[in-house]
Amino acid sequence: MEMKLGSRGSPLALAQSRLVAGMLNISEAAIQSFMTSGDQIQGRLQEQGGKGLFTKELDEALLDGRIDIAIHSMKDLPTRMPDGIVLACVPAREDQRDAFIATRAKSLMELPAGATVGTASLRRQAQSLHARPDLKVELLRGRVETRLAKIEGGAFDATYLALAGLKRLGLERHAASIVDSEAMPPAPGQGALAITCRAEDAKVIARLAKINIAEHAVTTTAERAFLQALDGSCRTPIAAMARIEDGNLSFLGEVLTPDGKQCWRRRESVALGSDGIETARALGLKLGAQIKAEAGPLYQAHFGDGGW
Question: Which of 20, 50, 87, 113 has the most C-beta neighbours closer than 10 Å?
């Protein structure tokens, strides 16, 4: 019997699921789409419970056997998996960077004073205000196409979208520029796909192992460990970018206050040993703990409950 794949119902999620179906030589008819709690929320996700809102219904479908695997954007996946479910595979990672979207400016620094940036991401809000405290940031949610239309229609002066999503939808032409990832690191896991399945389903896990890409598993492990060390969620402005170059794992991570006034950064490069996953996890946890310690009472005041 053909494996049943679960996906959110957005055009981007379905495009990503069709990509995975092709890797597994499974027909697109095997993809089942779900409306998740996160898709139904109109306000800020951090006020409603955070990342798990995009995975809850898919997790339930896995556990009751309606689907065999669930396909997620890695950055939507909570750092702690529900009992009985495992992150089994990282099959692909596109460009990690953000795209800057605007019709009258090529970059954030070119926006006029007082311009309005639309975003639902606390990370993008904090990074924008850190670079340009004179700007206004207002809530902009919705599918990729909806947000592009808002910019085209003049409702906002600018926004950001993950470059990976634009590429997977064939919409990268809408990017006014690609954001410098050194100046504005992306979200942990951005650009990567994540496949989850039931922990006891050995046959499925073995099949997924064949399309796992070790390099992407290593880099996302480091980023997710950094997030975990900081008790990160959608309520926390956290950025992380890991790369493998010449056998070394390089990492850049930062944490900001939502108003952008405070920013803590850590950067380190380590040699990848025989167990790259464990090396990556240790690095992410270490650097996250260092920022937590450096921020001290201010961090505890805001992050003590696992989010802002």
Answer: 20
Say which residue, 47 or 299, is predicted with more confidence.
299
Name the active-site residue from 59, 76, 157, 201: 76
pLDDT of residue 95: 96
Confidence of residue 55 (pLDDT cuts 50, 70, 90): confident
CA dihedral 47, 50, 52, 53 (to 10 degrees): 40
Could you tell me what percent of the chain has a pLDDT over 90? 79
Measured in whole angstroms, the distance separating CA 17 from the mean position of its chain's CA atoms is 16
Q: Report residue 164 CA to chain centroid gap.
A: 10
Q: Would you say 34 and 6 are in contact if contact means Cβ atoms under 8 Å apart?
A: yes
Chain-centre distance of CA 89, in angstroms?
16
- Dist. CA 213–CA 190, nearest whole Å: 15
User: Residue 197 in contact with residue 204, Cβ under 8 Å?
Assistant: yes
pLDDT above 60: residue 29: yes
pLDDT at 79: 87
Domains of the chain with bracketed CATH: 1-92+192-212 (3.40.190.10), 98-178 (3.40.190.10), 214-308 (3.30.160.40)
Report the C-alpha gap between 122 and 120 in whole angstroms: 6
The answer to whether residue 259 is catalytic is: no
d(CA 42, CA 39): 8
Residue 293: phi and psi, rounded to 5, are -70, -40
- 132 token code pair: 């340009």
